[in-house]
Every structure is written in structure tokens, then in C-alpha cells.
Amino acid sequence: MTPEKEHINTPDYIEAPSAPKHTRMQEFGRMLGQNRLAAIGFFIFLLFFCCAVTGLVLTSGSKPVFDPAMIRLEEKLRPPLSKPNLKALRPDQVPVFNIYLMGTDDLGRDVFARMLQGAWVSLTVGFVAVGISVFIGIFMGGIAGYFGQHHIKTIHILFFLCLMGGTGLILINAVFAGTALLLLCLSTIVFSLSARERSAEEKPSALKALFLGNAVSVDTLIMRIVDIMLCFPSFFLILTVVALLPASIYNIMIVIGLTSWMGTTRFVRAEFLSLREQDFVAAAKALGIGNFRIIFRHIMPNAVAPVLVSATIGIASAILTEAGLSFLGFGVPPPHATWGNILSDGKNFIFDAPWLTFIPGIAILIVVLSFNLFGEGLRDILNPKLRERH
Amino acid sequence: MLSFIGRSVVQKTITLFFVSIVSFLIIHLAPGKPSQVNPLNPKFTPEILERFQKEFHLDKPLYVQYIYFYRDLFTGKTVSWKDNQSVLAKIWGRFLNSLPLFIVGTLITWTLSFPVGIRSAIHRGGIYDQTATFLSYLLISIPGFFFAYVLIIFVVTRFHVPVIGMETFGITNASIAHMIMDRIWHLLLPSVLGATGGIAILSRYVRSQMLEVEGQDYIRTAKAKGLPPDQVHYKHAFRNALLPFVTMFGLILPGLIGGSVIIETIFSWPGMGRMAYEAILARDYPVILTVNFVSAVLVLAGTFVSDLLYLVVDPRIRL
């Protein structure tokens, strides 16, 4: 052994700084393996994802493999696994594999094809709605937690009110009043700019102090908005808005997303409040790193665990909400099949054709259950108190 | 204490004011019009339309409508656009119908979840705990309307009793016992359904609270000095685990008015939720707004009550 090598080899009793032996993904896989329910949930979730994607491929296009809209009035309410009556059907009406895997509904449409199409709808509704709510939640919570102690001046509130009022008035065809408000808004900008230039030399008067004084802190403002949103009974609010807006799948996603961000905001704010005071943030600030880089690169990865958990469970509840809306007749409009409206169409034939109720019902149950189990498992996995050190 | 009460009353009044504005704007700025003033409605001539517009103040600017609406609400003069009845009387009638559902549902939730939660916490990780955990996930995940149909099929085919509605139609000359049983059967299914989600969530919460308390030092001390397990669990642990649940009494207040739209629709139960649903369908703005306002008041009152209870129950908290 050469002397240089001996020099490089650190003795055993000094613990060399080393990277963790396992990568994050390996660690994650190991924890998932220990939590059996969560692993099952994760597996079903992957399966559902694959089903939804293949369903989208197989049921869309001008000549889909499984046509969810094909009406065969001769083949109404056939039970699952029944053979089609080949004599009564035109060749292009014969289902794939010569069998109705999940039966047909009251218009003779293939329930299997409709379920495949509905899987994609449920998946997108869940993911887009939760995506919107997580985005708003992180944004609002991050601002409240990080910039919380900053104060908003009265003039800013006036500015914002003028802007909103002006736009609103123009939208409802009161152009004159709206333009006036927008002009007032512009004048406040000019006023505040000139005030900033002169504020250095002269003492502010009482009126100016009122306008430029601190009104509320950002934190208070955002948390009050959260309180206001929490006052609405959520399903009732969603129902009202969806009923008043024209029926479309996008409206449902947006409305569910816009009414469910409050929990995420609270989590993120709480995490930010504690992380903001940590040493690594102080170090980053001392290095002169910008606020937004600190927020997204340094604090966010540490605050993401509760958000992930609540997002996973949020997807489950968004799927349930969509199904409930479809059930009440406010869901995705008819040419699209969703699990909720297959079920609500099927309820009229519950004694003659129970599969029309049970197949979509059990499908929703399994998917929502898998999301809930996975989300709860994720909570345990990501909880640093339960993580073992290696 | 007094300053806390004063502060939170002021704060909640401001919140309520903004809630009233937001709900008013959502309803009035959304596209579409109530059927009475919709120009596409073939039943009405332009003159009638104009009369309705005037009657409902729809020809005035929005802020005037807002002031008129809340003036009418506070003087109790709001009338439904659909049938010209007083909104408050209507809501009160429906509220009385929803009340039994709410009471039975809450009773079922609270009496079932505590024993289940405590038992799972005591036998943590055992077969009972695992089954209870899985069942509670199942209950959270099951779509309410699907579960309702499964239960209806089961009860109707097994026991041959009618369950839809508040009572069997035309059951006036039956014996008293028969009528009471009839009411109970009609009440049972919707309230069980209303309680399912609550049981699942509350029992999980009881379990985690109990687990937290069972890990404390004073429980180990109690065990170490040889107290019987029942006394440790129920006298030492359970009483301390109860603390957060006292405050939950405040939080069940909003459930009074929410009702469940879906369950009441399935069971044709003439309660609050269904009235709200019908009001939305008919675009009966006064009813929608009043329901919204009352439920916001209940939410705020609920949080206020739970804060107060916390103050009273836990002497460590000083606000």
C-alpha cells in the first residue's frame, strides 16, 4: 500500500460524510412494501391509470375499437357475458370478441365500452380539479407563510377594488362607470408613484398616512379569505355554480378545484411558517438567493409531504363529487359516459338490470378506496417520525 | 375572555358580510335567468316579464338589489319567487323535517364511533383494529347514492317494508304501533346513510386521540402501579382523550342545515337539502341565498361555540 493511498483512506473511527445508502425512490419502495394496504392501493391506482389511458385510446377516434355510443335497440338490457344475437345486428354493430363483457344498457350500448370511456373522465376530473386546488393552495399558502408579515397599504386595497369593480362593470355592460373606475385606478398608480418620490423629503400629512398606512398583513388577508370560503357548504356551492353554468366537463373540474383549495392553503402556510425560521433558509438568504428561488427550491420540497397526502385524498373526493353531480343530473353532459351517469341512468332498471348499478358503483368504490388507502399510506411513509435511519 | 368574545364577534360579522356579497355575486353574475323573467320562456308575454322584473327588483342595479334583498331578509319579508311563500317559514318547515334525520344520524355516529375507536386503539395492530380500519376506509370511499340503492334493495326484498318518503302514502287508518314502526323504518335508512361517513371519520379520530394519550407517561405510571386495565383505559386515558371532542359539538351545528342533497333526493325526503336542490333547479334566488346565509351563520356560530368550549374545558388555553 502506497503512502498516498493510506493518506486518502480515512480511518474507521472518523465517520466520513457519505450520501444516504438508499436513494429516495428505494426508500419509498421499501416503506410501501411494509405498508400492505397502501401497496394494494398504489397497485390499483396504477391499474386504473392504465385502464383509463387504454380506454381513451380504444374508445376515441372516428372508428373506435369499443364504441360507447353505438346504439343497438334490439339488444337492450342484456346481462353481462351474454352473446350478441348475430342475426339481428349489422356487421359493424357486433361487439368486439363477440361478447358483451358487462352487458348492455337500456339503449343497447355496450357497458364495457362506456365504463372504459368513463374511467378517463373520472381520472381527468380528479387530477385536473386537484391540480387546480393544489396550485391555488400552494400559491396562497406560500404567500401567506413566506410574505405573511408584510403589510398591505390601504391604497393597494383601493386600487384592487377599483380594478375589480371596473372590470366587473364593463363585463355587465356598464361601460361608462367601468371605464371611470379603471381611470381612477390608473390615477392611484400615478398618485402612489409621485408620493413615493416625494415621501423622502416631507413629513406625511394625516390624510396621506391614512392612505399609505398599513392596513392588514398579507397573512391576515389570505386567512380571512380562507375563512370566507369555508363558510360555504361545499357540495351545495358546487351544485349551485354547476347548475347555473352551462354543462361541461371543464366547468365541473374548475368548480371543484376552486372550491377545495382551503385545506392545502392551511397546510402549506403552517409548513412555511416553521420552515421560514430554519437555518438553511437564513443561509440561502445570506447567499443572496432570490425570494422565489428560496420558496420553490429550498422550502417547497420540505413542505410537499402534507400537500401530496391531501392531494391524493382530494382526488378520491373529487371523483366522488363528480359522480354525485352526475347522479343529480348536473354532471358531464350526455354524449360522454361517466361512471356517475351510467349509474344514474341504470337506477331506473335496478331490479331488471342490477349490473347497470353495481358495475359502476363498485368501480367507483374500488378506485376511491385505492386513492384513500394510498393517501393514508403516503402519510405514514412521508412522516419523518416513522422513518428509520440507516 | 370578554375581549376574545368581542373580537371574534366583530371578525365573524365582517366575514359574514363578505360571504353575503360573494354568494350574491355568484348567483347574480352567473349566466341564465330565473324562469319567470327568462325572455325565452314561451309562457310569458313581455308585459308579464316586465311586471316580474319590477316585482323582483331585477331592473335595478346590483347593489340596490343586494340592499333590498338583505333588508327583506332581516325584516323577515323575503318571499320565494316560485310560490310567493315566505322563505323563512318555508325553511323552518323543511328544517323540522330534516331535524329527525339529523338527530338520529348524529346519535348513531357518536354512539358507534367511540366504542369502535377506543377498542381499535387498545388492541392496536390486532385483527380487530385492522378490520375496523379497512371498514372505515370502505365507508369513506363508498359513493353515498350507490350504497343507498344497495341498502334499499336489501331492506325492501328482505323485510318487505317501504322506505321511500317520510311515511307510507295514505297510511292514516292503521294502528298506532304500525304507524310508529312505519316512521322508524322510513327514518332508519336515510339516517344510517347520513351517518356512514361520520362514523368512519370520527372513529379514526377517536383511535388516533386514544393512541396519543396511551403513549403518555402518566398512563405508564397508572399501569405500573397495578391498576386494572379497564380503569387505566377508561378513567385515565379516555377522559383525557375526550378533550378535542368537546369542541366538535360546535362543529356539528352546520350539519343542521346542510342536510344531504343526494340522500334526501333518493329517499324523497322533504328536507332542507332537497329544498335547496329544487330552489337551484328553479333558480329561486331568494331561497338559495337565504339557505346559504343561514348555513354561513351556523358555520361561524359553530366555530365560535367550539372556541368557547375549548376555553372552558382546557384551562391551559388563554386567548
How many H/I helices of chain A? 15
List the quaternary state of the chains. heterodimer
Separation, N- and C-terminal Cα atoms of chain B: 7 Å
Task: List the domain count of chain A as a whole number.
Answer: 1
Order of helices and strands of chain B: HHHHHHHHHHHHHH
Shape of chain B: globular
The coarse silhouette of chain A is flat
Terminal CA distance of chain A: 31 Å
- What's the overall average pLDDT of chain A, rounded? 79
Instruction: Give the CATH H-level superfamily of chain A.
Output: MetI-like
- What's the CATH class of chain A, please? Mainly Alpha
Looking at the structure, the CATH topology of chain A is MetI-like fold
How does the helix and strand content of chain A classify structurally? Answer: mainly alpha
Low-confidence stretches of chain A: 1-6
**How big a fraction of the residues of chain A is strand?**
under 5%
Most strands sheet of chain A: 2 strands, antiparallel
Radius of gyration from the alpha-carbon trace of chain B, in angstroms: 25 Å
Please render the helix and strand layout as text.
The complex is a heterodimer of chains A (390) and B (319).
Chain A: H1 3-8, H2 24-34, H3 36-59, H4 111-146, E1 151-153, H5 154-171, H6 175-199, H7 206-212, E2 214-217, H8 218-230, H9 234-244, H10 249-258, H11 262-275, H12 279-286, H13 291-328, H14 339-346, H15 355-382
Antiparallel strand pairs in A: 1-2
Chain B: H1 2-29, H2 46-55, H3 62-74, H4 87-122, H5 127-141, H6 144-159, H7 176-214, H8 217-224, H9 229-241, H10 243-251, H11 255-258, H12 261-266, H13 272-282, H14 285-313
Explain what this protein looks like in three dimensions:
The complex is a heterodimer of chains A (390) and B (319). Chain A has 390 residues and is mainly alpha-helical. Chain A has one domain (23-69, 109-389): MetI-like (MetI-like fold, Orthogonal Bundle). Chain A is 66% helix and 2% strand. Chain A contains 15 helices and two strands. Chain A has a two-stranded antiparallel sheet with strand order 1-2. The radius of gyration of chain A is 29 Å and the shape is flat. With 319 residues, chain B is mainly alpha-helical. Helices cover 74% and strands 0% of the residues of chain B. Chain B is built from 14 helices and no strands. Chain B has helices at 2-29, 46-55, 62-74, 87-122, 127-141, 144-159, 176-214, 217-224, 229-241, 243-251, 255-258, 261-266, 272-282, 285-313. In chain B, helix 1 (2-29) packs antiparallel against helix 14, helix 5 packs across helix 7 (176-214) and helix 7 (176-214) crosses helix 9. Chains A and B meet through helix 8, helix 9, helix 13 and helix 15 of A and helix 1, helix 5, helix 6, helix 12 and helix 13 of B.
